[in-house]
Every structure is written in C-alpha cells, then in structure tokens.
Amino acid sequence: MATPPESPVEEHAYELEPNRAPKPIPVALEELCRQTKFSKQEIRVMYRGFKTECPEGVVHEDSFKDIYAKFFPHGNSALYAHYVFKAFDVNCSGAISFRELLVTLSTLLRGSVYERLRWAFRLYDVDGDGAITRQELAEVVVAVHELLGRRAPPGSPAARLDDAKANEQVDRVFRKLDLNQDGVITIEEFLESCLKDDVITRSLQMFDTVC
C-alpha cells in the first residue's frame, strides 16, 4: 500500500528543525529564502511558531478569523479577516500554507512599495477577476470600519451619517483610481494612480496596515 504524501510543512521539517532526525525528503529552506526576504534563522523561528499554532500545517479561515478577533476585540473583524484570508490564500485552496504565509508576510513587511500595492490590489479585488469595482472597494471600506469598531448601530442616525461619509470616501478614491472612467480599476490604473498620488496612498494605507 502506497505511503501518503507528507504535508507541505513536513516537507520542510528536516532543515527547518536542524535537531530533528534526518528524513529522506527534499529540503525547501533555501527555496524559501530565495522566495522571501527572510533569513534562514528567521524562517526557522516563524516555522516553529506556525507549527505550534497550526499543527495541521495550514491555517483555515475560521482560525484566521479567531486570530483577528483577538487583535481587534472592539470591532467586528470577521468580514475584513475574510478578505485578507483570501488575499493570503494564493492557491485558492481554502487554507493558508506556511509557504503562502511566509511569502505574503515578506511582501507586506519587507517588500517594495510596488510589491505592497500589488498585494493591496489583490485584497480589494474581492472576486479575483483582475479588476476592482466601486462595490468591491466599498465592501472593503465597510469591513475596515467594522473591524475598527467605527460603525454605529444599524438604522441609527449616526449609522446613516457613517454610511454617507464612507460613500463619499469611496467615491473620491474610486474616481482618482479609475483613470479612464470606465467603471473598473485595473492593476495598471491602480499602480499608476497610487505611485504618483500621496493622497491616495495615505487613504489606502489605513486599510493595508491592519493586515
């Protein structure tokens, strides 16, 4: 009977954990170093923490939402955590592997402005079709407000005022990003607009830094 393949994390275990008994499997640490801006020691430390928190070798969305809830206890983080999870889940498998987590963290923490903006585009492109609509941008803005506990109780006068302000913000940012005014923002428009406009970059920074 064939032996089932080991998990992606176990695949790296020998070199990621030098004290562990050698196993006749490929070593991926050098590859992880090439794919990220982390050192071998940093990767080993993160791997040990990942393995402790995620013994299955992957992070599922429910666990990801729980993590966000701990960091943002005063708001409703579930919706925003959902969008961030999708952006981390590069392979669209429904679970984040150690490799995916590491590559994304490298981009967010040590990537160039260009690299971080490309990741931000992926976050706002909710349906993953390669373009951002006004509705998608609005969904992320609402999710951020909920995350930070800035939305008043539904139906209240304060909530209507919050919605009006959010709509104004979305309209303002969307008009600047949609350079040809065709109703969608492409990756080229997104990058061009953000790289030349500090106001847009600051407007978007609030959303990116809660990742």
Automatic annotation (TrEMBL):
Entry-linked SUPFAM superfamilies: EF-hand
Pfam families from the UniProt entry: EF-hand_7 (PF13499), EF-hand_8 (PF13833)
InterPro entries with a match to the protein in the record: EF-hand-dom_pair (IPR011992), EF_Hand_1_Ca_BS (IPR018247), EF_hand_dom (IPR002048), Recoverin (IPR028846)
Regions that span the bilayer: none
Signal sequence, start to end: none
Annotated keywords: Calcium, Metal-binding, Repeat
GO molecular function: calcium ion binding
Domain of life (superkingdom): Eukaryota
EF-hand domain span: 76-111, 112-147, 165-200
Entry's family note: Belongs to the recoverin family.
UniProt name for this protein: (African queen) hypothetical protein
